Amino acid sequence: MSILSKPYFHDEAAALAKLEEIVWPEGPVCPHCGNKERIYKLEGVKDKRGHVRPGLYKCGKCRKQFTVRVGSVFESSHIPLHKWLQATYLLCSSKKGISAHQMHRVLEVTYKSAWFMAHRLREAMRTGDLAPFGGEGSIVESDETFFGRDYTKKPKGSRKGRGYAHKFKVLSLVDRTSGKARSFKVDAVDGKTIIPIIRKNVAKETMMVTDEAAHYQHLKAGFAGHEIVRHSKNEYGRGVIHTNTIEGYFSIFKRGMKGIYQHCSEKHLHRYLAEFDFRYNERRVTDGRRAENALRGIRGKRLTYRRPNEEIGA
């Protein structure tokens, strides 16, 4: 049997039970007051249209009703939960992502709904992890990449010219020990912008490996060491001193951004970065487990149509 034949991909009650199992492993928690005790399950309660509301609970402390959707990225959505689970699986199992148009065709929802579903799920993938990369004996690679076109730098219709000033700029760090990546949208690729981000996200006991970009020249101060790979001299590795790991990450990122999300705007770039970081960091597990891990991040990340371009707490 295919995993897509699972009941929770087709039945609303089974989808609610599956989401409760993932989000509430120790039992229901009231999203209004945080109470874990004296929570009662309500059976047979109907909505205004006369439909029975599955998965409905009532808190014995604040006396409010709720389902597992409340306080999450799924709150107030009119799209059935089993379609949300299908969308989560599609987004997590596609190595280079899935476009909103394809999701709209597969799930048979409107394009507008598919676009917003994808952004809600990307919010769920944002971990907000602040723990520093690396440590004693660890190696962290740092590099930047450029893609797309930032029309605030060069308006549409103007001559593109040489260089990368008109492109979106992304800084990424890859910790070889944990195998995890962390990416940042940056406004400029220079020492004033790049170095503070690295110092904030990498432990001081770490060995840094970068290319020969000028903004890395003072990076050694504050770290266990700094090794440089000189591409201008056709050098691409000296044993463990290389940037091949982060280049591999960028190859996946570029194929997805250029081929699927090629019309990405700057205001949504942080969500696309969260998506690619999440899939890369969870690459060692199965597609089903990766989708479950994404669903564990739905709490406290409410995103509405009125503010899809805002940063919200992770």
Short description:
With 314 residues, the chain is α/β, with parallel strands linked by helices. The protein has helices at residues 12-23, 81-93, 100-107, 111-125, 191-201, 244-259, 269-281, 287-295; strands spanning 39-42, 56-59, 65-66, 139-147, 168-175, 180-186, 207-211, 225-229.
Provide structural commentary.
- It is elongated and about 70 Å long.
- It has a domain at 139-264: Nucleotidyltransferase, domain 5 (2-Layer Sandwich), CATH 3.30.420.10.
- The protein has a five-stranded mixed sheet, with helices on both faces. The chain has a three-stranded antiparallel sheet with strand order 1-2-3, with no helix packed on it.
- The protein is built from eight helices and eight strands.
- The protein is of the alpha/beta class.
- Helix 2 crosses helix 8, helix 3 (100-107) crosses helix 4 (111-125) and helix 4 packs across helix 7 (269-281).
